[in-house]
Design goal:
Helix content is 30%, strand content 9%. By secondary structure, it is α+β, with helices and mostly antiparallel strands.
């Protein structure tokens, strides 16, 4: 099973690296799509600047505060995703700064390819493995546990009903028939006809 996992991961790393090399833009396709969605939302926002790097951005009935110096917005989307939120995009456009350049570095093609740069090396077959007997793993030693050892296995509550076979069926609710007198209601041990 471990060999199958190793081969699967080796193929996956190669496939994902080849996908990353095919990117036409500097940033990942997912992040660029999200950025374009945010840019569409930003078109409906109004911005009011305070003359410094603080901005008040109105989106419908909500008002958000953007601080470009700290790269923070009160909606916290920038903090969570690393992609400028619609409010930050509107504030950056107000200062005539390209918002795409403010996207975090971890979405770049360079960062993506660095993740998949280390590879899993191929391994020869099990026939060629050198096993040193001094380093071979041995099973753990059996230690005697404290207390008296249990002789019977602990069964579950409904185990007798689950099993098949006459010996395991529950006798709860059954009428007992005496082997001596064949009368229902008592067993041979309590039979009144036997001498005491």
């Amino acid at each position: 099973m471990l060999e199958d996992i190793r081969i699967k991961v080796m193929k996956r790393l190669k496939k994902l690296e080849e996908e990353g090399k095919k990117w036409t833009e500097e940033y990942s396709p997912y992040s660029v799509d999200l950025y374009h969605d945010f840019r569409m939302i930003a078109q409906g926002c109004q911005v009011v600047a305070n003359g410094d790097l603080g901005y008040e951005v109105v989106e419908g009935v909500d008002t958000h505060v953007v601080n470009l110096a700290r790269k923070k917005c009160t909606c916290r989307t920038c903090d969570l995703t690393g992609i400028p939120c619609p409010h930050a995009i509107k504030a950056l456009e107000h200062d005539k700064i390209e918002p795409l350049n403010e996207m975090h570095w971890w979405y770049t093609k360079e960062a993506y390819l660095l993740v998949y740069q280390p590879k899993i090396q191929p391994v020869r077959g099990e026939k060629f493995w050198k096993i040193d007997l001094s380093q071979a793993m041995q099973p753990p030693q059996i230690h005697k546990l404290v207390g008296r050892p249990k002789l019977k296995r602990v069964g579950k509550k409904d185990e007798a009903r689950k099993r098949e076979g006459l010996w395991s069926k529950s006798r709860k609710g059954l009428q007992m028939r005496c082997e001596n007198c064949s009368v229902v209601g008592h067993s041979r041990r309590r039979c009144p006809l036997l001498p005491r």
